[in-house]
Design goal:
Blueprint lengths: L2 H18 L10 H12 L9 H10 L11 H4 L5 E3 L13 E4 L4 E6 L18 E8 L6 E7 L5 E7 L5 E9 L4 E6 L5 E5 L6 E4 L9 E2 L9 E7 L4 E6 L3 E3 L1 E5 L4 E3 L5 E3 L4 E7 L11 E2 L4 H7 L3 E2 L1 E4 L5 E4 L1 E8 L17 E7 L4 E6 L4 E6 L23 E6 L5 E5 L5 E6 L2 E9 L6 E6 L5 E6 L13 E6 L18 E4 L4 E3 L3 E2 L6 E6 L6 E4 L9 E4 L3 E7 L7 E9 L7 E9 L12 E6 L4 E3 L3 E2 L7 E5 L4 E4 L9 E3 L4 E7 L7 E8 L2 E9 L1
Length: 691
């Protein structure tokens, strides 16, 4: 199968509906122009962002992703530029120099050498060099624990316990006496696997709500050099493992049937005592070469891996592929309604293993069901993200990708091992999106981990900041995520009244519709046919993607068909870059014969009004005509169209526009004032009677 041809055919199917609606899907220009446009999308340019369908097409045109991983809310929505945060800290003299988006609050929860509960040096104190970690929810009290490795010898794991309100209520150890505990992995059965990054390193299974005495070494996973992190596939009962010791294999342990244990809660636990170990191999595919051994870090090799390639799992002794400095790893299960079949695959992608390789600055995606691997972040691919701090120029690519996590809503996030101290959301073959950066000191960012509801994100810096009277070998932070970015936001279904009496080749305007059902802001996009435009909250008309918030109104207009009986349609979409957020509707008009005489109308009389007072009529919409007609008012009255400015000058009223009159009531009591206006040849009146 030719991957490029198959991918193009798949793309035609996906975009067929939009093509039929008259939306142009091509983005002309060279790669540099395209990348500039795409960077505008991901860096939050708001009204100038491309619609989601253009984004998807541009990704395909650039030879981009085949393993279709949906975007989470942090990747898909615009959280704006980063700002210098005032970090909540009991030591008020510390300048953390931490940048994050507006509305994302940050506090210190643990500092090396300080007890996180008492904030003194008494009792169990915060550990050295915090590294990989995870959050575990308490099964009954609504609280949780954040576990964090200690990358030191002796090492181990510390645990910070929170109540349901987020208060720190305990700090304790769940592993002691081990060596250089770097990263690890969270299991579906509620334990923490802590890995020793050293020669002959082991995996230790720890109980987040237990003690160090409960930890068990998992010898069946082997003693491996530079053991880094693990991720569990709960469907196929496999544990995937990265090794950070130069060029090393990417390995997995698959349980034998007798290794599996059914727990009372229905979760299948891998004992990790009986199974087979395998290594990943990327064989030759069509005209593309095999990777027997290490993968070169150059543009030619990278290009060969940006499209999904089949992989094999081979015995430990067989020819395999090695990866340069394996780091963070995470298992992510795509929600069922968002799964798609890659062009090189045969079934919808369900489980994805993300893993990072530090020494070549790459992030990989492994499609478990289809046995495909794809390079999604790559220093050779122009994927440098911009530093969104004010006054800072764009920075280069990642400086050593490290710990990796996927949020409960599907945002893949990577922490940086290098000295730039960044935390960013990664997107498949597109520029990464910076979420946090610390600019003081020289450390690495470690252990990003979310609570189950996505409301809190934890991460650490291994060194600093300097605090008088305390150690400086690690600080752990908690960042709160605003509700709009905890789940994909989607507008409630909306629609426009179909206009079936439009004159030929005339601008027809919809009624205003109030959008609702989401937090924050989404993007309105419109099909570029029939001269279509839209207006948000009666602002200027435009056909460029624009921001809209819940509670704002939306109107659409387009040019009707030229022939009587023909239909004109305009597709309107509200959403973000995530396909799961898109809410679509169509504004439809049918052309009829020209008619310039409105039906008879009247504004009626308002009784009992005060004297000498400016009184406004009710708002009405005239019917029976389909061409703009002249309007004139007077004397002693004014009118306004569609809630605009009041006037007594001659004007023009278009079909479906609203109309309102006003005048000053008579001075004397029980006195009637009647004023009139003409729409075309049809008169209308407004009357008031004083009390």
């Amino acid at each position: 199968m030719n991957v490029k041809t198959s991918q193009h055919a798949h793309r035609q199917i996906q975009t067929g509906e939009l093509s039929e609606a008259g939306i142009s899907l091509s983005i002309p220009g060279l790669d540099m122009k395209r990348r500039t446009l795409l960077r505008g999308v991901f860096m939050g340019l708001g009204a100038t962002a491309l619609p989601a369908w253009m984004m998807q097409e541009a990704m395909a045109e650039s030879g981009g992703s085949e393993i279709d991983v949906p975007l989470g809310p942090l990747a898909a929505q615009d959280f704006g530029p980063l700002e210098l945060k005032t970090v909540a800290d009991d030591i008020t003299t510390v300048n953390h120099q931490l940048y994050a988006p507006a509305g994302f609050d940050v506090r210190v929860i643990m500092r090396n050498g300080i007890n996180p509960v008492s904030r003194t040096t008494e009792g169990v104190v915060g550990h050295l060099d915090p590294d990989g970690g995870a959050v575990f929810m308490h099964p009954s009290d609504g609280g949780w624990v954040y576990v964090s490795n200690e990358e030191n010898t002796p090492g181990g794991v510390g645990a910070t316990r929170f109540d349901a309100a987020g208060n720190i209520i305990d700090y304790y150890r769940i592993l002691d006496g081990t060596r250089n505990n770097c990263a690890g992995g969270q299991t579906p059965w509620g334990t923490w696997m802590s890995c020793e990054e050293t020669s002959g390193g082991y995996v230790w299974e720890c109980q987040p709500f237990g003690t160090a005495a409960d930890a068990v070494r998992k010898d069946a996973l082997g003693a491996r050099p530079g053991r880094e992190a693990v991720a569990v596939d709960p469907i196929n009962h496999a544990i995937y493992q990265t090794l950070d010791s130069g060029n090393q294999p990417f390995v997995r342990f698959v349980s034998n049937p007798d290794d599996l244990e059914m727990r009372p809660d229905g979760v299948v636990r891998m004992r990790c005592e009986s199974g087979v170990s395998q290594r990943l191999y990327i064989p030759a595919f069509n005209e593309l070469p095999a990777f027997n051994g290490s993968i070169a870090n150059n543009s030619a090799t990278s290009a060969q891996l940006r499209l999904a390639r089949p992989v094999q799992w081979v015995a430990e002794t067989d020819t395999h592929t090695t990866f340069n400095g394996g780091e963070g790893i995470w298992y992510y299960e795509i929600p069922e309604g968002l799964r798609t079949t890659p062009s090189a695959g045969t079934v919808p992608t369900r489980g994805v293993i993300f893993f990072a390789t530090k020494n070549d600055g790459r992030v990989w995606a492994l499609d478990i069901e289809n046995n495909l691997i794809e390079l999604i972040v790559d220093g050779q691919n122009g994927q440098a993200f911009e530093n969104l701090r004010p006054g800072q120029p764009a920075l280069a690519n990642w400086n050593q990708v490290d710990n990796l996590v996927v949020s409960p809503s599907g945002d893949a996030m990577v922490a940086e091992d290098g000295s730039n101290m960044r935390l960013a959301i990664v997107l498949n073959n597109q520029p990464s999106k910076l979420l946090m950066q610390i600019t003081a000191g020289n450390s690495e960012i470690t252990a990003p981990a979310f609570t189950a509801d996505g409301s809190r994100l934890y991460f650490s810096r291994q060194n600093g900041p300097n605090v008088p009277g305390s150690l400086t070998r690690g600080t752990t932070y908690e960042m709160t995520i605003p509700p709009a970015f905890r789940s994909i936001q989607k507008a409630d279904a909306f629609s426009f009244i179909e206009r079936d009496t439009g004159a030929p080749a005339t601008t027809i305007t919809s009624e205003p519709v109030i959008v609702s059902g989401f937090l924050g802001s989404l993007t309105v996009s419109i099909g570029l046919v029939n001269g279509a435009q839209f207006s948000v909250d009666e602002s200027n008309w435009t056909n460029l993607p624009s921001s809209i918030k819940a509670g704002q109104s939306l109107r659409v207009r387009h040019t009707s068909a030229a022939l009587v009986g023909e239909v004109a349609e305009t597709l309107v979409i509200i959403g973000s870059l995530s396909p799961a957020s898109l809410q679509k509707t169509t504004f439809r008009t049918t052309t009829s014969a020209e008619d310039t005489r409105p039906d008879d109308f009247d504004f009626g009389m308002i009784e009992g009004v005060p004297g000498s007072t400016l009184i406004e009529s009710s708002v009405i919409t005239l019917s029976g005509f389909n061409m703009p007609v002249p309007i004139k008012c007077g004397p002693h009255c004014e009118y306004r169209i569609d809630g605009g400015n009041w006037t007594d000058a001659k004007g023009s009223l278009a079909p479906y526009q609203t109309l309102q009159m006003r005048h000053v009531s008579n001075k004397s009591s029980n006195s009637v004032r009647r004023t009139h206006l003409h729409v075309g040849d049809v008169p209308g009146h407004f009357a008031t009677r004083t009390g």
